[in-house]
Amino acid sequence: MTNPKLKALVDAQKIYNDYTLRDDNINWWCGGCGNYPIQNALKRALALQGLERRDVMFCFDVGCSGNGSDKIEANTIHGLHGRVLPLAAGFKIGNHKMQVIAEAGDGATFSEGISHLAHAVRNDYPVLFILHDNQNYALTTGQPSALTPKCQSMSAAPEGLQIEPFHPLEVVLGLKPSFVAQTCSADIDHMTETIQNGLKHKGFAFINVLQACPTYNKFITHEWYLEHIQRLPEAHDPTDMESARKYAFSSDPFYLGQIYHNPERQNFLETVAHRDENSETLINEVAHQDISKLLAKL
Ligand code: SF4
Question: Which end is more exposed in the chain, N or C (fewer Cβ atoms within 10 Å of the end residue's Cβ)?
C-alpha cells in the first residue's frame, strides 16, 4: 500500500478490531449505558496511537465499569474493590514498557479507594486512569456514592444522603496532579481525543468521564449532558492552576478538555531512576540479587 495515510488508517482499524471481543455470547451492560461509548473511544484512541494488544495492560476495579474486563480482547486483570491503582502501579513498575490503563467507578475511587487515588497522584505513577463518573454505585443497584448529589433520591436510599458530595476535580487538583482532563460519554470524539492525550502523558493521567447510567442515575442522562457540556475556551491555559480551578468547578456548563497539565513534573519512575541507572526495571534489579544461599537454608 503506497498511500501512507490510507495505510495508517488500515493499521488503526486492524488494531481496533484486535481489541474487539470474539465471543459475543456474554452479558452486556444495560441498553444506553455510557460504558459502551467509553470502551469504544478507548479502543479508538489505542488504535490511533498504534498501541497493540501486546503493549497494553488493562486493570479493572469492581463495578459496572469493571465488568469491561470481560468485554475486551486484551491483557486484563480485575482487581479488588477500590484497589485498582496500586495494582496498576505495580504492573507499570514491573514492566516500564507496558502502557498501563486503570478503570474504576466513582464509588470505589472516592470511598474504598480514596487513599490509593491520593497516593497515585502524589507519586505520579505513569498510569492512565479513567474514572467512570456516573455518580452512584451502579452494580449494587443504585446506592449513593461519595459523588451523588446531596438529598438525591436513589433506589437504595429513597431520601438520599444528607451530606455534601465530594467534587472529584476539586479533590484531585488539591493533590498537585500532573494531568487532569474531563470528558463525557455523550461525546465519543471528545473522549477519543482526550484519551489519546492521556496516553501521551508521561505521568499519572486522571480523566474524569461524566458518564450516563440510565438505569440508576435518572437525574443525568446523555440528553441532559448534551445540553450542559461545553469545550474549554481556547484562552484557557492548562498550566495555570487558577484557571484550571475556575473551569473544573463549574457544573453548568461542565467544561470538557485538558483542565490542568504540568509537563515538568517528575513521574515516579524518574524519581527512582538512580537505582538502576535507567537500564533495568525494578523487577530485574531484584533479579540480580543472588538469594541462593538464603534459599538453601530453608
Ligand atoms: Fe451501565 Fe448503569 Fe446499567 Fe451499570 S447499571 S451497566 S452503569 S446503565
Answer: C
Q: pLDDT of 140-193, one tens digit each?
A: 999 999 999 999 999 989 999 999 999 999 999 999 999 999 999 999 999 999
Of 27, 30, 69, best ligand 1 pocket probe by most atoms within 8 Å of the beta carbon: 30
Structural domain spans, the chain: 33-268
Q: In what order do the strands lie in the sheet with 56-60?
A: 75-78, 56-60, 99-105, 128-133, 205-210, 179-184, 254-261, 229-231
- pTM value is 0.92
The full DSSP string for 137-168 is BTTTTSB--TTSPTT--BTTBTT--SSPPPPH
Residue owning grid cell 540479587:
289
Query: 10 Å Cβ neighbour count for 224?
Result: 12
Domain 33-268 fold: Rossmann fold (3.40.50)
Which ligand 1 atom is at minimum distance from the Cα of 34? 1
Residue in the structure block whose three cell numbers are 454505585: 137
